[in-house]
Amino acid sequence: MTNSVIQGDWTFALLAVVFGIAAVGFWLDTTSLGKRLSGIAIMLVIAIALSNVGLIPHVAPLYGVIWSTLVPIAIPLLLLNANISKIASATGSMLAPFAIAVFGTLLGAAIAFWLVPAGPSSADIAGVLSATYIGGSMNFVAVSEVLQFEDKSIVTAALAADNVAGTLFVVWIILLPTLRVFRRWIPSPIADAAEAATTATTNAASSTPPFNLLHITSALAVSGAICAAGYGTARALGIPNYGILFSTALSLIVATAFHGQIAKLRGHDQVGMFIMYMFFATIGAGTELAVLIETGLMIFALAMTILLVHATVVLVAAKIFRFDLATVAIASFACIGGPAPPAAVAAARGWNTLTTPAIMCGVLGYAIANFLGVAVAKLLG
């Protein structure tokens, strides 16, 4: 959009706003409100408000740089302390909740198709939304190209509906493990342990050493090398979209093989979190409420129906099978948001055993979502 107060090509002004939103998020995480509701969730709401009142643009080159360059760098930074021998068992614990989340999306697509009259393209829209709610936005683009919508405005409306519905769901799923009513119904030992550790860390904060620039630059160099190797391998194999999978695997290999040396580094995980907070600010900024209201209310209703069914299935399954609530929330988020965002949330909340499983499940979603989205469209149609 070009009619915002801060234009898309005003990079430094836009950087100031993005940094400011990230700063608010970090500050909120230190307050009682942020600990209850999550600074990331409140950040998303702030960014949505700023972009939709016309202060910042919905689209800008800066956002693309953050998504395509900084986020891949952040992933190894967040994983350098992940010793694979310690997380192997935890990865398996997320597979069942993730599979149930996928089923919830597919069931939601079928129910939404029959309940919501979204026009003659309802089946294709349900297929596209199924793909994006199993793998992420990349799958939205791929499946929409496969289905070849004759009316391109439908794709635009579906994208707007997806952005708004998906962002609202992300806010809810981040809040979910912090809400006491759900924690009483579905316990979360992982979240309990993280909160206890946060309290202990806060009490000992005065003894925490300052950032060491040698450590941070060394970690950034390692992260850059991992990304270069991972994404280079993916391009060489003809599957560039799966660069994050190779980077994740290399990060785990490095973190395990050089665990002793990496354990001495300080500050790299905080730099990774800083980048991911910038990323969340741009996600909120990209949510266009006006486009949704103009062209996609019924499609929005269809998207919300899918997500509501998905959430219901996930929570009921969590209660029946006694899944950990934090694990279920991150598994659901991996369905809706792809690999990077749920990993960032897990790291921010101190659920360190869930960071790598979130990425792996998100990548699995990438791999299967195109096939499932097209299948949904064909079966319903």
Number of domains: 1
Cα-based radius of gyration, to the nearest Å: 20 Å
How large is the share of residues in beta strands? under 5%
Q: Give the strand tally.
A: 0
Describe it for me?
It is built from 19 helices and no strands. It is mainly α and 381 residues long. The protein has a single domain (11-202, 210-380), classed as Na+/H+ antiporter like fold (Up-down Bundle). The longest helix is centred in the N-terminal third of the chain and has 32 residues, at 84-115. The model is unreliable at 202-208 (pLDDT under 50).
Quick overview:
By secondary structure, the protein is an all-alpha fold.
List keywords for this structure.
381 residues; Na+/H+ antiporter like fold; 0% strand; globular
